[in-house]
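re: ur msg from earlier - yeah i can do the coenzyme A complex, just paste it... oh wait u already did. ok heres what im feeding in:
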Amino acid sequence: MIDIRAMAVEDIDRILSLEARTPEAPHWDRAAFERFLVEPDTEDVRHAALVATHGHDLIGFAIARQVLDICELESIVIAENVRRMGIGKALLRAVTTWCLAHGAVRIELEVRAGNENAIRFYQKAGLIKEGLRRDYYRDPDEHAVLMGKGLDSGLWAVENFPQKTD
Ligand SMILES: CC(C)(COP(=O)(O)OP(=O)(O)OC[C@H]1O[C@@H](n2cnc3c(N)ncnc32)[C@H](O)[C@@H]1OP(=O)(O)O)[C@@H](O)C(=O)NCCC(=O)NCCS
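and the outut:
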């Protein structure tokens, strides 16, 4: 069974190993993950870091920073051998559900312009291309596509999100 839970400091070794096997992903070092996990939430900035596990295996993770009412997805990675099984969808749904519960109204992200798989994944979730940031990435140099979506309708997370009845 696949479990989605909060990321812990003890997960970082396995996250770095998964990240190292994923050239398309943003590459954070150990200190960046540690900082993210210990940085306290404030009224304006909140941190969401989730992992997907299967037994003892860590098979994916997602990181988002919520600034005011915008959920900024920093990274989402699924191990190559378990892609196209709905785990990315489950993680993105979990992140956006968390952000909705903390008052977010939009999700936004940047993705490498050449990362067509991720762009299709995000489009399937209902995000649309909203802009281009030229020469945003290094190693290799590449433009960033900006994508976003209101969380009021249409994203996977909203399908099962409890509606207010009053
Ligand atoms: C992008 C990524 C997170 C998707 O995770 P995943 O678990 O494979 O995605 P899911 O199985 O939940 O896919 C949900 C839907 O998104 C779409 N989708 C996902 N990957 C796709 C691909 N490679 N091509 C086309 N559509 C895709 C499909 O519609 C899919 O539903 P379907 O399989 O029933 O057709 C994964 O491919 C990955 O880790 N890529 C490398 C890291 C990366 O690029 N991250 C994003 C930048 S930070």
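cool cool. The CA atoms of residues 46 and 66 lie 5 Å apart. ping me if u need the other ligands too
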